[in-house]
Design a protein that fits this description.
The chain is of the alpha/beta class and 330 residues long. 29% of the residues lie in helices and 24% in strands. The protein contains 11 helices and 15 strands. The strands form 3 sheets. Strands 1, 2, 3, 6, 7, 14 and 15 form a 7-stranded mixed beta sheet that branches. It has a 6-stranded parallel beta sheet with strand order 10-9-8-11-12-13, with helices on both faces. A two-stranded antiparallel sheet has the order 4-5. The longest helix is centred in the middle third of the chain and has 12 residues. The structure holds zinc ion (ZN) (2 copies). One zinc ion binds next to helix 2.
């Protein structure tokens, strides 16, 4: 388990491409899982990093909407635009989908090269650091837009990682009545309370199901969102919804999990898998921050240079430090 800092040749912008000097890039849970190898979604030899903001240093011919020195945030997923899913607007599950820092070199670097269409303008009032949170916020917005979150619903979020915490902000904006979040980390639960969770449950001390039944007159929650990705958390998300409830799965930690199928079938629970976001959802994330509808800067808990990033990532992977969002500032 190691990340290495290497000297690479400087990227050159070809036609329709841009080179961006990275100013802030988030270390994602998926990068940490890549480091431990548990998900199998990261391969050695690739530059990771997909939550990036920066400033344009070079443009190839054919990029007309931007100029050098523009502040930008990078939309990190390539899609083909012509497969069945793309034609239905579901570009997040494009059959040819390719992700920055997974399939092509990412932003854990001084410079990153991307197609010009992946650039989004970073409004002046949004700092580069907060700009690096646009990507995870887009994940949360995609989730919040795909669950039936009606006014005054009880929404349970399993896992107070960056995504789980950002879903609190989305659920609040969408009109949830009671937002419950569960985790094992007192630190993360404290952050959750600070940004708007009504009830923060430490699963080592309380049964999430008992808490939810207590606040819903014994019925169960309307919606649960799983943002961790293990058997116990997937099962928890299913168990806390009422019959007819809806469960969304975003977590991705281990491919195979075990759940009680009867809890799903006999109670007609709907489970949906959710991945990433569309360009429209990414733009909503920028707008939500720009207009102060969502305040995300409290989630940034560490800032390191490129040299300090590998040891920090290893610490995060080992679980020896508990940080919500760590940023690399190249
Ligand atoms: Zn991410
Ligand atoms: Zn496609």
């Amino acid at each position: 388990m190691q990340l290495e800092l290497v000297q690479a040749s400087e990227p050159v912008a070809q036609a329709s491409e841009a080179v961006v000097a990275v100013r802030a890039v988030g270390i994602c849970g998926s990068d940490i899982h890549g480091l431990t190898g548990i998900t199998g979604r990261r391969k050695p030899g690739m530059v990771w990093g997909h939550e990036a903001s920066g400033i344009i240093t070079a443009l190839g011919p054919g990029v007309s909407d931007f100029k050098v020195d523009d502040r930008v945030v990078i939309f990190p997923n390539r899609y083909c635009g012509s497969c069945t899913n793309c034609r239905q607007g579901r570009t997040n599950i494009c059959l040819q989908r390719q992700a920055l820092g997974v399939n092509f070199p990412g932003a854990f670097a001084d410079l990153v090269k991307v197609p010009g269409w992946m650039l989004r303008r970073l409004p002046d009032q949004i700092s580069y650091e907060v700009g690096a949170l646009v990507e995870p916020l887009a994940v949360a917005i995609h989730a919040a837009d795909h669950i039936p979150n009606r006014l005054m619903d009880t929404v349970v979020i399993v896992g107070a990682g960056t995504i789980g915490l950002l879903i609190i902000l989305c659920a609040r904006l969408a009109g949830a009545g009671t937002v419950v979040i569960t985790d094992k980390s007192e630190h993360r639960l404290a952050v959750a309370r600070e940004i708007g969770a009504d009830v923060a449950v430490n699963v080592d001390e309380q049964s999430p199901l008992d808490v939810v039944l207590d606040i819903t007159n014994g019925e169960g929650a309307d919606v649960a969102i799983e943002a961790v990705g293990y058997s116990a958390t997937a099962q928890q998300a299913i168990s806390v919804v009422r019959p007819g409830g809806h469960v969304a799965w975003l977590g991705n930690s281990t491919p195979l999990i075990e759940i009680n199928m009867q809890d799903v079938v006999l109670r007609e629970v709907t489970i949906s898998g959710l991945l990433c976001y569309t360009t429209a959802e990414f733009d909503k994330a920028i707008a939500a921050i720009e207009t102060s509808k969502m305040k995300v800067d409290t989630l940034i808990e560490a800032r390191v240079g490129l040299e300090e990033a590998p040891p920090l990532a290893v610490e995060l992977a080992k679980g020896t430090c508990d940080l919500v969002k760590a940023l690399i500032l190249p």
